[in-house]
Predict the structure.
Amino acid sequence: MSFATNGDSHDRVYVLGQDLRATILTTAAETDGRHDMSECRQAPGSTTPLHLHTRYEERLWVIAGSLKVWAGPETLTLTSGDYYAIPMNVPHAVQAGPDGSHALNITSPAGLAELIERTGTPARLATAEPEFDADLFMAVTTELGDVVLGPPGATPGDI
């Protein structure tokens, strides 16, 4: 399932390494900074670094597959139709289930779409095995007020 976007949707599709493909559905510019929304597909078993957001909340709505979420003291698995909100300043990590995940990520105020756009490779330019620029990702994520607390696989209980 894909959703309509303003403008050419091909210009809004990005890959971040081999594990994440994201389509930016709304941007900060389109919502006066109130929120952004991205349609994200994560490869089976892929995990985000343990991190927190100091400038925006993150909301997840699972379309298909599943996501395991560690957020503060909570650990839960979201499946198709499930929704979960992660408040600002809460350490969290997300892992795609065995069949991967297809979810909407909504941040408010806007934040995640800018990170995707600035650090991802436009899908039309991606190779079969797209590279991930970790240094660029860390610089932009820090600029946007995100704090990486640990590598993929770390959970809030590890800090």
Notes: The chain has a mean pLDDT of 92. Residues 18 and 130 are 6 Å apart (CA to CA). Strands lie at 13-16, 20-26, 36-42, 49-53, 57-71, 74-79, 83-86, 92-108, 121-122, 146-152.
